[in-house]
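Final report, closing paragraph on structural work. Over the funding period we assembled a curated collection of sequence-structure pairs, and we close with a single example.
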Amino acid sequence: MKRPGVILKKGKEASLMRRHPWVFSGAIQTIEGDVAEGDVVEVIDHKNRFLATGHYQPGSIAVRVLSFGREPIGGNFWRKKLENALALRRELGLAGSNHTSMYRLVHGEGDGLPGLIVDIYGRTAVMQAHTAGMMRSAGEIVRALREIMGENLKAVYNKSRQTLPGRMREDHRDGYLYGEKEEGPFLESGLSFFADWEQGQKTGFYIDQRENRKLLGKFVAGKKVLNMFGHSGGFSVYALQGGARVVHTVDSSRTAIDQAEENLRVNSGFPGRHTAFVADAMEYLKNIWDRYDVIVLDPPAYAKHGEARQNALQGYRRLNQAALEKMESGGMLFTFSCSQVVSREQFRRSVFVAAATAGRHVRILYQTAQPPDHPVSLYHPEGEYLKGLILRVE
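Its predicted structure, as stored:
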């Protein structure tokens, strides 16, 4: 059966010729055939030349490209893509590791599967579909996962309610597509963590900060550390393991703090060196008299779309200024943005203004990003969402 065709306006094929994986609605001249949300379509230029195959979805990003060739989007396609993704994680020393059992298997466009996230926790895969097309393909994706992972996969949990578009989100219920719940803890760099993919944030744990947590552990021996927006305590565990004298974990969620304390207990607890606070970040920084040697700022995304960018940049400025004013001379600030619409340059400029306003002399020691199991396609720079600055503060 001939696929429906999305016909582009003259001159709008240039981005696809550069292998960018998105087609915006404003580039479309017309649509041939009966097309429903999530259907596989062919993208055609104004001269009727084939360009790509992808999932169609109403909205600003109308087509997300699955292939720049004409090929069936079925069992073999999913299996090949997932085999390539798994092979990369094996090369990175993650899949099959004895010291890390949490990693990202599929990172959307970075793995040639736009709209799909798959994270691995032990022998459970947690899937997030961001498009109707990926949600409709869930059954085939699960079959392919089972084929390539074999006995290393005992369950697949679909956590897509918060990531699906529009009406499909309203009709969706999260749950197991295969198998049953596996209890933790799970390993990251030899440390143990519980992950709550059923009720927790994201897919259950902030896997993308793994390398930054390891980096923190190198600079905290004998130091007083504040982990702001501490969530389930990942940075706090690494800080205490690295020899921090005192660690304070702050989060506005009581549930998050309970998870953090559970993760501390499973890693020996570090008695007398850790205190947790349920508090708003800005209120905590404004009202304390303490000064810290190391502060970690890992807030949730301040902007999820371009219209909110300026407010987000002001939020980053205020937060970093408040933290810089509570730091000892010679201290270190680990500050991050996970807002995709905020560029690395924009985030750095906000931190620059914060430092200048706080009157602190600041040097950049590291500029960090997401780890390699969250790869960024060279043709899709928008995939680089996590930006970090590791600063020395005088």
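DSSP finds eleven helices and 20 strands in the chain. The mean pLDDT is 94. We thank the funder for supporting this effort.
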